Amino acid sequence: MKVILALIALLPFAGFLFNGLGRNIWSKKTIASNGTMYIFASFVFSLIAFWNVKEQGAITVHFFDFINTSTVHIPFDFRVDALSSLFLLVITGVGTLIHLYSAAYMKDETAPHYARYFAYLNLFIFSMLLLVLGDNYVIMFIGWEGVGLCSYLLIGYWFSNTTYNNAAKKAFIMNRIGDLGFLLAIFWLIVKLGTVSYGEVLTADSLAKLSSTDITAITLLLFVGAMGKSAQIPLYTWLPDAMAGPTPVSALIHAATMVTAGIYMITRTNIFYTHSAIAQNVVAIIGISTALLAATIAIKQNDIKKVLAYSTVSQLGYMFLGLGVGAYSGAVFHVITHAFFKALLFLAAGSVIHAMHHEQDIRKMGGLKTKLPITHLTFLIGCIAIAGVPPFSGFFSKDEILAAAFAKNPIYWYLGVVGAAMTAFYMFRLYATTFLGQFRGTEAQAHHLHESPVAMTLPLIVLAVLSAVGGAMGVPAILGGSHWLGHHLSSIVGEEAPLHLSHTTEWILMGSSVAIALVALLIAIGKYSKQADGEPQTALGKFLYNKWLVDELYEKAIVQPLHRFAGFLKEVIEKNVIDGLVNGTGRLVQYGARQTRLMQSGQVGYYILFMVLSMVALFLIWFNDIAITRFIQNLIK
Amino acid sequence: MVLLSILSVPFIAAIILLFVKQDEKANYIAIAASGIALALSLNIAFNGADNFDAMWLSSLNARFTLTADGLSKILLLLTCLSFPAILIATSKNQVKHKNQFLSLMLFAQTGLLGVFLAGDALLFYFFWELALIPVYFLCSIWGGEKRVAVTFKFFIYTFLGSLFMLIGIIYVYTHTTDQSFAYASFKAATLTAGQKVTAFALFFTAFAIKMPIFPLHTWQPDAYEQSPTAVTMVLSAVMVKMGLYGVIRWLMPLFPDAFSAHSNFVMLLSIIGILYASFIAIRQDDMKRLIAYSSIAHIGLMSAALFSNTEIGVQGVLIQLFSHGINVLGLWIIADVIEQQTGTRSLQAMGGLAKQNPTLGILLVGFSFANIALPLTNAFVGEFLMFNALFQFNPWMAAAAGVSVVLAAIYTLNMVQKCAYGEVSESIQKMQTPNLPAQFVLIVLFLVVLITGVYPAPLFDLTADTLQQLFIK
To answer: DSSP 3-state assignment of A246?
Structure first.
């Protein structure tokens, strides 16, 4: 098992080395096939690992001691259990599909850049696998920052473009703010418990050792980390900008896998969160607020990828709502279904962009339904899934979160349903504007419209099937299911208590949320199947179109003041105050020297006088060091 | 004897070099000598070495004692790895009177090695100054336009610090029971608590200037900027470690009570310094100055961790002494390659390095991420332990210092963006032929970054005995 777990992580790393070092040697065919095969092999081993976990429960393997001091011991250990084995499958499975897709999508790149792209993508998978395979928070942190690096490299993949570089930099820096929270949580654990290994931290014993302040602080600090990585208020603004990267990257990293790391982290630490009502409320409130904020913005965006990006932020908000109300397996369920349908939507969007020659503005599309039949159908399935229409996958996972939210506090449910209605609306606005009605692009574009090659449509079809039927893993009892996923995760999150909702209530909740979503969906189709959105007219429309002006606010309230502060330190304090004092001292000494030079008068009497004085001084120094000690001490004080 | 020979190799080579007129030959001799020293240092680090002891100045009872524990070994390794790296990486640079330049470099290495090996306080002081003097000449003869004023300031500033230390050494010496400069005698010196505070203050001044601790740092950016880059590398990869070394070797064990009494104060200064230098680095356009301020911030973290007086903090510093040296060396070499070929250090004038020279671009990105302590690079291990120590001491201090984690990402990625990304600028276009020796060195150093970052166990093992001496009462 040790070898298998090592291989799961190391195969993508081998792919990284292969393509990274051989970027000037290999042909594009070699690059793409190797890049993809390494991930696929990792997927196969992940299946084996998954099977083993099912048979015999969690497995921990030790490789070496990463940090070993007398007080802190951090082993380099992997752990595969019910939770991580699921993530392994999603990462390597969706990862394989996206590598395959990329082989065709990126074919216009020159071989060295093509290799660079695949190397980064492989490195990303490696980091993400470290993140979920690690058996302690430090290994998780290694993967955590590793995926941040890869995200940075891939957002800025076209590095000649300054805007893209800025987006990459912004992503890394905002993530770092979160990482600082994560780090402090790790230190808190080490100081209080002396360990960061899951097996020792996540136990009743260690909970008993911690005060409620400790638990709240640790959980909130971890959540700060999650805010960065999983793009929650206030650290979400990097994710929409991250769309600067190639579209498959958006699908893999900025939708399906990396951004769900925060959900993984909190699910992993669930027993801590369950013991801190404050942390739970904070998570739920931030989650639902983010879900709503991002949904309102998505309604007014016209860039196909931007809509999907805000949709991702919004869906991540739902997952945190689920975590905050204690529906851990529901959140993980939504992670998985979201990975299917959001990867699908992004890849389908990529197929559209590919066909439209890099046009991303949906106002210039329309009527693509007949030209891109496979893309159209799969995109539609993705939209239905995300809108929460039964029996597609998104319905089940979202419903589970909403039901738990209702049980906790009905207000969460109402807000959640409002968000769900908006989701249905903006997704079908996107669908209708892009695929229905008349084509609004140029002649040349119309002439070149074509369905994408098999390497691109095959992943679309696979993901569409998963998006359609993926809900089967978590059909709730009320619909006659057994909720396989909930049982599967019970070793991590415990058997979740039934929700104390009557069947009638559950039916009403489910029925009304579906009905509202369907209404919103139909309104959107009716409104946008003929024409695209014009320029926003109302003040509210402009406000949403401009993303609540949050970027502008950050720029004015944080970035610029800090920039000016740094300038002040550099130009005023450093140059004039501190160095000024040093140079002033120097000048004073020089001045003093010019004056004392006058004492060198050549008169013997003076010399003798100075000699005697010096001897007295020496006498004092050598034989009365108590006095000099006091003198120096006074000087210091 | 091996300790004496590692000192002698660069010393003898330095003398020989004075008589070698051809640049090429001088280069080979210098590189060969530093290579031998590297081999010896590896031998010492992994096989250990017996102390060397001989009478030196008998009238004062000062002995020529050389000794190497974990602390010495790790700095020995750093010094002996840095010098061949520097000499090879800058071997293509045009330097007038190259043999003299190289000779002084090797004298400086001798001094540095002596500092890290001396087991006798007067000998320590002797080498401390011996390391400074060649650097003074290197800067003032081969430096940039403003070299005279800058070097003068640098020299006076650090020399002043050294004088305080000399007074401190004599002061403790007069209180030893056997009138000796030996390390053991110094440790056993009979000083009252008040006297220890005095002695602490005298030593501390020297070390604080050398490190430097805020606000005693202003000599450093100027000196780094104006020195020839080979010397800047010596200064910032190795020489600043003298101050930290001094703290661990002399301050902590000799005056433990005074040390912990002043922890809060020094840590506060250090943390202010970290944030202060990080903010200033954000606004630097000169690549060398940016690296200089970044280095001040990193050293600030190391001094804060030392003064937390925790085992984990000192362990972090011991690792970071080495890692910081490697990382900053990598950045300097890249800055030097660019400056040599383009004639500019202004980030504004750069751009497109990744396109013009992908290998160098990749290395810049690599060392930059090591500079911000990305996990699995060497700096992460040290910084993780050091922040952990700060947290143990006071969580708020850790949080405040932790802001530098974000600031470091800002200034470092700014540098990467302006230098490597974007369209190829006019000056970067001048970089037609790659500097192969420099790239070779960078690749080797980067391998060290990764290996010690993934598997730091050898560094832990190497330094275990120092920690034991310091923390097992």
So the answer is: coil
Q: What is the DSSP letter of B167?
A: H
What integer pLDDT is reported at residue A256 of this predicted model? 87
Task: Give the 3-state secondary structure of residue A301.
Answer: coil
Selecting from A70, A141, A578 the residue whose C-beta is nearest the C-beta of B375 gives A141
Q: How far is B40 from chain A (nearest CA, A)?
A: 28
CB neighbours of A354 closer than 8 A, spacing ≥ 6?
A105, A452, A456
Measure A114 CA to nearest chain B CA, in Å. Answer: 14
Q: What are phi and psi of A75, to 5 degrees?
A: -80, 150
pLDDT digits (tens, 9 = 90+) for A407-439: 999 999 999 999 999 999 999 999 999 999 888
Identity (one letter) of the amino acid at A197? S
Please tell me the distance from the alpha carbon of residue A129 to that of residue A148, in angstroms, as a whole number: 13
Residues A443, A447, A453, A459, CA torsion sign: positive
Strand, coil or helix: A177: helix
**For B354, which of A70, A159, A628 is closest by C-beta distance?**
A159
Whether the per-residue pLDDT at A8 is higher than 70: the answer is yes
Of B218, B405, B460, the CB nearest to A68: B460
Residue of chain B minimizing CA distance to A152 = B413
Q: Compute the radius of gyration of chain A from its Cα atoms.
A: 30
Of A71, A179, A629, the CB nearest to B198: A629
CA gap A507, A134 in Å, rounded: 41
Strand partners, A136: A197
Convert the pLDDT of each residue in A585-596 to its tens digit. Answer: 878 877 877 777
Under a CB-based contact definition with an 8 Å cutoff, are residues A2 and A48 in contact?
no
Chain centre distance of CA B119:
20
Work out the pLDDT band at A402, boundaries 50, 70, 90.
Answer: very high
CA distance A447 to chain B (A): 33
pLDDT (tens digit, 9 = 90+) per residue, A76-99? 999 999 999 999 999 999 999 999
- A-chain CB neighbours of B414 within 8 Å are 169
Q: Which of B158, B356, B413 to mutate to test the interface with A (most CBs of A within 10 A)?
A: B413
CA-closest candidate to residue A420, choices A261, A314, A307? A314
Cα distance between residue B411 and residue B390, in whole Å: 23
Contact B279 A570 (CB under 8 A): yes
Q: Hey, are the CB atoms on B387 and A187 less than 8 Å from each other? A: yes
Cα maximum dimension of chain A: 114
Q: In the block, which residue shows the tokens 């980390």?
A: A225
Q: pLDDT tens digits for B384-399?
A: 999 999 999 999 999 9
> Cα dist. A118→A22, A112, A130, A340, B352 in Å?
11, 10, 18, 21, 21
Cβ separation B457–A633 shorter than 8 A: no
Tell me how many residue pairs between chain A and chain B have CB atoms under 8 A apart. Answer: 150
